[in-house]
Specification:
Blueprint (H helix, E strand, L loop, with lengths): L8 E7 L32 E5 L14 E3 L19 E5 L3 E6 L5 E7 L5 E5 L30 E8 L5 E5 L5 H8 L17 E6 L5 E6 L18 H4 L4 E7 L5 H15 L7 E7 L6 H8 L8 E3 L8 H13 L1
Parallel strand pairs: 1-3, 2-4, 9-11, 9-12, 12-13, 13-14
Antiparallel strand pairs: 1-8, 2-7, 5-6, 5-8, 10-11
Length: 333
């Protein structure tokens, strides 16, 4: 992955601002003998905030900015003047970013996620400003000589993970034709070559179908047997599939056993996250431009049961419109 601009995992250390102290000031003016307390409140410390930005598609901007410190609030002053609030740190992140807080024992807990443009998630709140001494004036204590200190700052380590937002995710072994399909049905231009692991980062494309409908398709890097254990590209990109509404399994027509390959792919997803079984699934048999009708009919008996399937060729355009219709219908479910 050296040299890639696609970063979907970063760890940052963040610290919010300390609240400003309240003032213990007394009014001092000519001809005012007993001015009384007039100390202002301290300002709030700055927050650490994640904000969704549709113009971002990677977390690379945080790769070299792993320390995020917000400003402290200013202290209060006389004449009941409140201190200035500390400046918030607003971190723009791509849609689909999940934040997890790293605990002292090394485990993580879910902190939230950002899925909409402009949506904000406060990771750490700034400390509240302290109250000035005029708040503490009572009938029995007309001149309080104390004020409230500001609330302490918060700090913590967070893991930010990007899960690509797409309607349809392409699932298959390396070199199954996923990138070629995406390049044919959308304007995306993923790298295509005749060797495994050509795709090293997810690619997104907008697919247009009948009646001016459209949906987003994601080309996920190829899965191999044992991916859930870290083999091949491991679980690095399996998390992107969690966001997809429909999974399109792609197996080439020259496979030795289509049913077995489908079972292996499904097994890898299941062992990574059993909830993936709840998603709509379709099967596309790719690279079928050299097959005749008789051979296709014979192959249909060797397909896995219970999953809608279609024979396609991205090169010749065979059944591509039908595939789009099937995907759109699956998305409506």
């Amino acid at each position: 992955m050296a040299g890639s601009n696609f970063v979907d995992y970063v760890k940052i250390f963040a610290r919010s601002g300390h609240g400003g102290s309240g003032s213990a000031h007394f009014r001092r003016e000519k001809f005012v003998e007993f001015g009384g307390p007039d100390g202002g409140d301290g300002g709030r410390g700055g927050h650490i905030i994640l904000r969704g930005d549709s113009q971002y598609w990677t977390l690379i901007h945080l790769k070299y900015q792993r320390h995020q410190f917000a400003e402290d609030g200013e202290g209060g002053s006389g004449a009941r003047s409140s201190g200035k609030n500390g400046k918030d740190i607003v971190i723009p992140v791509p849609l689909g970013t999940v934040a997890r807080r790293v605990l002292e024992d090394g485990t993580t807990e879910y902190a939230g996620e950002v899925t909409a443009d402009g949506e904000e998630l406060v990771l750490l709140k700034g400390g509240r400003g302290g109250l000035g001494n005029w708040h503490f004036k009572t009938s029995t204590n007309q001149a309080p000589r104390y004020a409230q200190p500001g609330e302490d700052r918060q700090e913590g380590t967070f893991i930010l993970e990007l899960k690509v937002l797409a309607d349809v995710g392409l699932v298959g072994f390396p070199n199954a034709g996923k990138s070629t399909l995406l390049s044919v049905v959308s304007a995306a231009k993923p790298k295509i070559a005749n060797y495994a692991f050509t795709t090293l980062e997810p690619n997104l494309g907008i697919v247009e179908c009948r009646d001016h409908h459209s949906f987003v398709m994601a080309d996920i890097p190829g899965i191999i047997e044992g991916a859930h254990e870290g083999k091949g590209l491991g679980t690095r990109f399996l998390r992107h599939i969690e966001r997809n509404s429909v999974l399109l399994f792609m197996i080439p027509a020259d496979s030795d056993d289509i049913r077995k390959d489908y079972a292996v792919l499904l097994g890898e997803l299941t062992q990574y996250n059993p909830e993936l079984l709840d998603k709509e699934r379709l099967l596309a048999i790719t690279k079928c431009d050299m097959l005749d009708e008789d051979l296709i009919e014979e192959m249909k008996s060797h397909l896995p049961e219970g999953v809608p399937s279609v024979f396609i060729s991205s090169i010749s355009g065979m059944n591509i419109p039908r595939l789009k219709d099937m995907l759109w219908e699956a998305l409506q479910k």
